[in-house]
Each structure stands twice: as structure tokens, then as C-alpha cells.
Amino acid sequence: MTELVMNAPEQAADTAAATSGVTVRELAEVPDLTAVCQLFDSIWQREEPGAGPVTPELLRAMVSSGNYVSGAFDGGELLGACFGFFGSPAKSALHSHIAGVSAKGMGRGLGFALKLHQRAWALRQGVTAISWTFDPLIRRNAYFNLTKLAADPAVYLPNFYGRMRDTINGTGDTDRLMVTWDLLSDPVCAAAFGEPRRALPSGEPVLLADAGGRPVVASADTPVVLVGIPPDIEAVRRADPELGTAWRVALREVLHGLMADGARVVGFDRAGGYVVSREQS
To answer: What keywords are annotated for this sequence in UniProt (predicted)?
Structure first.
């Protein structure tokens, strides 16, 4: 790679951090890793005390074996963190397991800054792809991953983690959408410098909400269809867990079914949902 290409990810990461008003850096020492665990605990709030997503001991072992932990700091305050590890084959790809931002850090672009730091770090290791999973019912995460970062959905994973029992996931199944981030692709390079993936025509809806907010599965003959999701599924789960489960079941039926048949998620309509092409690649 040319020096310009190699420096561009660092520049994009530095710009994102400066725009967010934070410093993003790798973490390796126990006090910093403990702070990361405390941050994750405060975000996910598991029902069982001490049953956070990760422990300082695990992060310490991961870092010591060459894996990735970073934090976003405003002065001395940790506002966001990201943790990833290498998958197989050895060190050819990175799996980004957890990224989280505190309530105080929301709305500042910290998630974007953390991911661009992770991208630059991975490229320095010779890694050109990062994967991660997210809850496909959370609209802001779908927009962030598919549009803001230009990641590509790869596979729908029903009940991937089992029941997690925390304030974000509730007590239901943990379906996930696995995405792949091709770090040197044209859409990802453009997104890194503030040009998100363009929205595509949405097509006819095959999943939408009725007047009461309940999911309705519809049929459409168009080559491109829209799979809708609620504006705020987390609020739905808190107010009406049964309705949250109904949306989980409906999305699994429709989006998982489409992807299993070879359809591709080609974009995300921020006002509606997943734009899916039925045309075979």
C-alpha cells in the first residue's frame, strides 16, 4: 500500500475523535480495563450482580495475547470502550465483540470514533475485515452499522447468545445480524471520511406496523422489498414485553427467511427499515 493509503485510516480516526471531543487510545493496564468493565456493567445492567459482559481478568488476558481494547476519554473520564479479538484463520480477521458508550457520551459521535480507531488499528496488524453482531431490531444501531459505517450484513443468527437478561435485551431471544466491515472497500473508505452509504429505493414493505404498533407481515412481488422495524424497540420491550417478542418473531420470519433464500440486505432506510434485494448476486 502507498503511504497515503496507509495514513488515511489514521487521519480519519483522528478527525472523528477530535470532532467528538475525545481521545481514543488502546488500553492494557488493569485500572483502565477495570474501568471498561464498570462502563459495560452500567450500560447493560445484568440481572445477576457481578455478571457483566466481561471481566478485567479476561480483558487483561486478551490484550496480553495481542487483541484489541480501546477507550474514549474526555479528559480523564471514560465515556466509551470497544473490545475485539482475532478469529480464525489466525489473525486474518477481527471480531468486534462489544462496543458501548455511556449515557453522558451519547450524541457526540463516540461510537464512530471508536470504530474508526479500531479500523486503523486492525489495518496496522494487516487485517482488512472486522465482523460483529448487533440486534437487528434496534433501529439506530442498524443505521449506524449499515449506513454510517457501510458494513455489509452477512447472516441472520436466531437466538445467538441465548437469553441475556439485561436492561437492553430484556429476557427474550437474542437474535443477531452478523455484519462484515471490508476495511478498504470504497464505501467504507468514503464513510470513514464522513460520506455515509447512500440510501437506496426502499421497495414494497413486507413487514410493517399496524395502527397499534403491532407487526404485520405482507407480501410483495417486487425485486426490492422493505423490512420495517419499530422506531424504538427498547422502549417497546419495557412497556410491552409481549409486543417486543411479537416483533422479534416477525423479523425472524421475514428477514431471516429472505436472507436464507439468498436475498441480500443492500441498505437501511432510516425512516423505515432494511432494504432487501431478492436478486441473486
So the answer is: Transferase
> How does DSSP assign 76-140, residue by residue?
TEEEEEEEEEE-TTTTT-EEEEEEEE-GGGTTTTHHHHHHHHHHHHHHHTT--EEEEEE-TT-HH
Residues 216/208, Cβ–Cβ less than 8 Å: yes
Q: Is 190 within a domain?
A: no
Quick: pLDDT tens for 148-185. Answer: 999 999 999 999 888 766 666 666 789 999 999 999 99
Percent of the chain whose pLDDT exceeds 70: 90
Residues 6 or more apart whose Cβ sits within 8 Å of residue 172: 163, 237, 241, 244, 245, 248
Q: How far is CA 111 from CA 59, 75, 80, 174, in A?
A: 20, 17, 7, 22
Together in a domain, 111 and 2: yes
Query: Helix, strand, coil proportions of the chain in percent (round to 5)?
Result: 35, 25, 35
Maximum distance among all alpha carbons in the chain? 57
pLDDT digits (tens, 9 = 90+) for 217-229: 999 999 999 999 9
Cell numbers placing 199:
440510501
Domain of residue 228, residue span: 204-277
pTM: 0.91
Same domain, 122 and 3: yes
State how far Cα 24 lies from the chain centre.
18
